[in-house]
Amino acid sequence: MGSTKKRPSTRKRPQTGVLDPEPYLGSTAIDFSRVDARGVRTARRPRGEALARFQQAALRQAAEAERRLPRLVDKIRAVAHAGDALRLYSSVTLLQRMRRTAPGHIGFGADAMAEFFGGLVTAMPVEQVLARLGAEPDLQSLWTLDALLREYAIAQMRIGERKLVQEGASDQLDRARHLLEFENQFDRMLGYPAQLRVIYTSITDRLSDRSQSALGFALKDALIVADAYGEVLVEREHSVAERLQPLLNQIPRKTPRDELVEHLGRHMAGIATFASAPVEDLVELLTQRTGIPRDQLSRLLDAMTTQLGSQPTFANLFETNILRRRPIIGLPDGRKLWASPGDFMHLALDWAADVCSQNPALLRAFDKRRQDACEELAYQALLEVFGAEHVHRSATYPANGQRPDVDVLVATPGCSIVVEAKAGRFTDPARRGAPERVRKKSREFIDKALDQNARTIRHFQQGAEDLRDKDKRPLTIPNAPHITSVIVMLDRVDPFATHLPDGGKRGHIPADGTWLVNLADLLMVADILRHPAEFYAYAELRARINKLGGPTILVETEALGLWCEKRIPAVRPGEGEVMTLAVTSQLMNDYYTRDRDDPEQPSSRPTSGVPTEVLKALANVMEQRPGDWHSLTVEALSVPPARWSPLVKALETARAARQSRKGRKRVRRASTGLGVTDNLTVCLVDDNNARALQEPRPDVLAIPISPPHRLRHPQDGT
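C-alpha cells predicted for NERD domain-containing protein (718 residues):
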C-alpha cells in the first residue's frame, strides 16, 4: 500500500494544513492495547462472542452503507450539475493534494475519490457539462462535494469489510486478495518521483524509436510533458497563494478555534478553486514549453485523454474508470483539462502498457525492456552499496542438466544476497482481487521466485561449484555461509510483499525467509542505506520479519523510516495476535517530497543513526575476520540510535586535547568495553592497546582511534 506521497516542485507549493485530523477513511475499530518501545503495537483478534458482535456490527454497517450509496451518488451528481463540473473536479483534485502536507494515513483514499468524481464527470452528458462551463464558482460547493466523496469512500469501505467477514481470511492468499481489492479502490501512489522517474526513463528511453514509429510519439516524452505542465500549475498555485496570503494574515492571533477553522476552510477552498488547472489548449501551451513537434505532441496528449461523455455508464468505485490511466479530460473543441500532471508518474507504466497494447510487437519489446530494466536497476543499486568487486549480474550455475541464472548476486566475505527480479505486469483482474488471477500471479511472482532462490542458496551451501559470470567465464566468490533471499518486483503489489501468498505451486523456500520488495522501494532503501552493513542488516531483518510473521509491514517507506528512528524488530505473533507498526513515520516523506528551495524543510538524507566509527569498524571486520561480520552487523544495526550516545560521547572525549576527570573516566570505560547489548561489546583501541585487535572475541567490535592519551584494553583491568 503506497503511503501518500506528493510531487516535489522547483517552486514552493502553498502549505496548508488539514482541517480534519481524522483519517480520510475513518479510524480502525480494532483496539491496539499494547505498544512497545520499538513502535510495534499488538492486538488480539476477537473470538467467541466478541467476534460474533464484531461481525454483526460489520454486517449492519455494510447494509446501511449499501442503502446510502445510491443516494450519495445522486447527491454528488447534483453538486456537479449545479456548477461547473470540470472546475469542481480540478478543484477537488487540488484540495486532495493539499492533504498531502499531513501524515500519509490522514489523506489516504482522498486522491482515489477525486479520480472517482472525475469519472462521474466524464459520464455526464457532454451538453450538460458544457452548458455550465465557466459558471461562477461557489466555495461552499467544494466542501460539500469533498464531504460527500468522503462519506461515499467510507461507505464503500464498510461494504468491503462485509466481504471480508463473509469470505474470511484464513490464509495468506485470502488476506492478500482482500488487501489488493482495498488498494485498487483507494491507493493511487506508487512511490517517490526520485525512483519512479529513473524506472520509467530506463524502460522507455531505449524504446523511443520503436514507439515513435508505431505510435507516432515517443513514450519517454509523456513524462517530459507531465513535468512541463506540472511546472505551469505550480507557478499558478504560487501566484494565487501570494494573492490570498494577506487575507490569511488578517486573521486575529487569538481567534476561537471554530472561527479559525472557518477562515482556513475558506482559504483552502480559495486556493483549490482559483489555482486549480483550467480547461485550456494544452497542445499550444506545451509545444512552446517542451519543443516537441506539434503533431507528435497532439497524438501523445490524445493517447493520454479520456473524452468527455466517453463512459456514460460509469457510476461505481468498483468499475473500471478510464480516467485512471488516461488522466486528461478532453472537450469536443480540442481543449483539455489535466488536473494533476504531477501524479502522472504513478500511472505512467500502466499507461504505457495500455498504449503499447495497440501494437503486439511493441508490447513484446516493452515487456522485455521491463524485465531488463528491473535487473539492471537492481544490479546498479546494489553495486553502489557493495562495490563492483562483490556484485554480479546473471551468474549461472549447474542444476538438473541446465544452467539457471541469478539475476543479481551480492557475494562478500561476510554475507551473500541472491536477488530474483520479476517484471511481469500485474493485470487489472488480479488488482481487483479476482481469486484465480491472484493465485496465478502468486505462482508467477512468488512461488517460482522462492523456489529459484532456494535452489541457488542450496547450490552455494553445497560449495558453489562451476559458477560462471554472464560472459560464461569461471566466477569464484567468497561464498559466505549467511545468505539472504530477495525478490524484486517491478510493479508495486504491496499485499504480496506483506503476506507472500502461496499460489499452490510452491516447492522449496529459503529457510531464513525472503524480503519481497518493489523495485522503487529497493532503490529508495539503497539510496538511504549506503553502507554494506546498513543495507544488509535491513534486508536480513525484512526477510526475518516475513519468516516470523511480525510485525505486519504494509508500507516499506514507513518500515524503513521507523527502522532508522527506532529499529523495528522481527517477532513471531502469538496465537490470535495482530502485530503492526504503531506509528506512521514521516522521515522518508519529509525527505523525498521536500521543497529544495525552502530552507525550513529537511535537506539532509535520513540515516541509520549508527556512528560512522562503528560502520568503519564493521568494514574492518569484513576484511580481517569475515566469519564474525554477520553476527556483529546484525547485532550492531539492531541497536536503537539513541543507545549509541555513550559511545559517541566517549569518542568525542577521547579525541579532545584536554579532558576532564569525568571525561577520562568515560574514555577508560569505553577502552575496557562498553556493553551495548548482551551480545555486543564495543572497545576503543589504539596502538598502545593493540591486543583488542590481535585477540578478538566474536562479540567484540574494536574501534581504532588515535587519541592524545593512552587507552586501555579489557584485560588491563581498571
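The longest strand covers residues 405-411.
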